């Protein structure tokens, strides 16, 4: 279908002569190449630019809709966690930032779990939402990660985590950093149960998340050209006094240097995950 047909279909409900405007979200400017892409076409292409194949950032709702078999997904209720334990305030109160993020995303915090099936195999998927305060890791994210592990153990299913984060949530101080060892212990619980832990790194994944559960997968997958880093490029260059390669801290660089197992286009990810899960759970029975 041509872009002209897409526009015609989108505007078919507009009454001639009425003072109505084209919706602001009819077009999307690709952050990779700058091309204006019809929003519906972008959605149908799983938010991958049809011109340059740049992968736009997406949240839990889009991930679950794409990955799970139809009718099998069940989102887990967000676990309870202490809110604003330090009564933190910078230019705004932390409580106000949380309220704004919840209004903007419709989620309780930056990490959401769901259980379901991929090609008939049980799986629990956790998705970190960069739109919620940069996907930052606080107590709620730590609790949600542990919830996902416990659900996977209960279901005898792999746990697949999609990371997208700027790192630890500064408004929770040391309590945020404590989620790093907590998530590591939770992953060990999963291993003790004989279940796989699979990580899909998405743009961007950095900081405390990168130093914790993002790099502890039995299988490490990444979306193309995702920025993956513990600390910023300029910080490293100023420290070592050297110019880093142009593709430094990208999925492709990590793959070339043996730090991840594969880079997979989002449109192929569901089938690739099904294959990996099939290999890692060969002895487990399929879901009824």
Task: Describe this structure as you would to a colleague.
The structure is a single chain. The chain has 288 residues and is of the alpha/beta class. The chain has 11 helices and 10 strands. It folds into 2 domains: 43 residues, no CATH class; 224 residues, 2-enoyl-CoA Hydratase, Chain A, domain 1 (Alpha-Beta Complex), CATH 3.90.226.10. The chain is globular and about 50 Å long. The two termini are 39 Å apart. The relative contact order is 0.11. About 3% of the residues have low confidence.
Labels describing this entry:
288 residues, globular, two-stranded antiparallel ribbon, single chain, 8-stranded mixed beta sheet, alpha/beta, 11 helices, 2-enoyl-CoA Hydratase, Chain A, domain 1
State the major sheet: 8 strands, mixed
| Poorly predicted runs | 13-21
Write the element-wise H/E pattern from the N-terminal end onward.
HEEHHEHEEHEHHEHEEHHEH
Q: Please report the number of helical segments.
A: 11
Cα radius of gyration in angstroms: 20 Å
What's the architecture of the largest domain, going by CATH? Alpha-Beta Complex
Coarse shape: globular
* Helical content class: 25-40%
Helix/strand-derived class?
alpha/beta
> End-to-end span in angstroms?
39 Å
Total number of beta strands: 10
Count of structural domains: 2
CATH superfamily assignment of the largest domain? 2-enoyl-CoA Hydratase, Chain A, domain 1
Average pLDDT reading = 92
What is the level 1 CATH name of the largest domain? Alpha Beta
> Which range does the strand content fall in?
15-25%
The CATH topology of the largest domain is what? 2-enoyl-CoA Hydratase, Chain A, domain 1
């Amino acid at each position: 279908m041509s872009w002209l047909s897409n526009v015609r279909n989108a505007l078919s409900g507009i009454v001639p002569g009425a003072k109505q405007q084209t919706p602001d979200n009819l077009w999307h400017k690709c952050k990779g190449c700058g091309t204006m892409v019809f929003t519906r076409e972008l959605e149908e292409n799983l938010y991958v630019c049809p011109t340059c194949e740049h992968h736009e950032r997406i949240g839990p709702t889009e991930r679950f809709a794409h990955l799970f078999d139809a009718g099998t997904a069940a989102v887990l209720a967000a676990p309870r966690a202490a809110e604003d334990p330090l009564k933190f305030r910078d230019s705004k109160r932390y409580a106000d930032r949380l309220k704004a993020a919840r209004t903007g995303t419709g989620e309780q915090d930056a990490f959401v779990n769901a259980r379901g099936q991929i090609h008939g195999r049980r799986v629990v998927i956790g998705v970190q939402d960069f739109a919620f305060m940069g996907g930052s890791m606080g107590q709620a994210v730590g609790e949600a990660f542990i919830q996902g592990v416990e659900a996977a153990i209960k279901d005898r299913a792999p746990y697949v985590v999609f990371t997208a984060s700027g790192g630890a949530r500064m408004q929770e101080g040391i309590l945020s950093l404590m989620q790093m060892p907590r998530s590591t212990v939770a992953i060990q619980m999963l291993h003790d149960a004989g279940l796989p832990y699979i990580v899909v790194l998405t743009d961007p994944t950095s900081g405390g998340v990168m130093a914790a559960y993002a790099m502890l997968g039995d299988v490490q997958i990444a979306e193309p050209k995702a920025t993956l880093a513990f600390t910023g490029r300029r910080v490293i260059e100023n420290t070592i006094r050297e110019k880093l390669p142009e593709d430094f801290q990208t999925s492709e660089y990590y793959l070339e240097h043996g730090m991840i197992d594969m880079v997979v286009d989002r449109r192929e990810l569901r089938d690739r995950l099904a294959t990996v899960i099939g290999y890692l759970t060969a002895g487990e029975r399929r879901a009824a």
